[in-house]
Structure formats: C-alpha cells, structure tokens
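Tutorial, part two.
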Amino acid sequence: MARKKSNRYTGVYFQELQNGDKSYYITYKENKKDVWKKIGKHSEGIREVFCHQKRNEIISKIRLGEDLPYVAAKKASQTFLDIAKQFYDY
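Running the prediction step on this input gives:
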C-alpha cells in the first residue's frame, strides 16, 4: 500500500496496513537529503498530532544545532572490518 499524505499536517504521512491498522511516518530534510522516519502505529496510541509535534521538535533541533531526540538519532553501526580488527587485536 502507498503512503497517504495527512490532510491537516505538513510532513506527516500514514499507511493503511492489511490488518486495518495505520502506520505513521514523518519526513524532513537533513543535510539536503530527505529523511523518512516511522513513528509508530495507531494501535500503539500514535496519532497525527503527535507525529506533527515530533517533526517540529526534530526540525527545530536541527536548525539550532542541538542533539536530536531519540526518534531521529541515527544508530551507530560497526562494519565487519572494525569487528575483525577488534578480534585480531584481542
């Protein structure tokens, strides 16, 4: 199913799932790239208003140069080469 744009809030999208639930997403720009983040499902208590508030929070923190909230923080990942180097050093 395709994502549908919220009629009321900018940058908020939802996708209807096969079980009748809705999954909510937000979009924003970071370093001139579009970023899509899944916020949560309707059954988990997530609504369009909450997604709009999270998007505004993320955008303002990007603009001010502060640390991003947990929803937008990127996870640090290790490459296979890093793990192999740690193994051989051990």
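The chain has two helices and four strands. In part three we will examine how such features are distributed along the chain.
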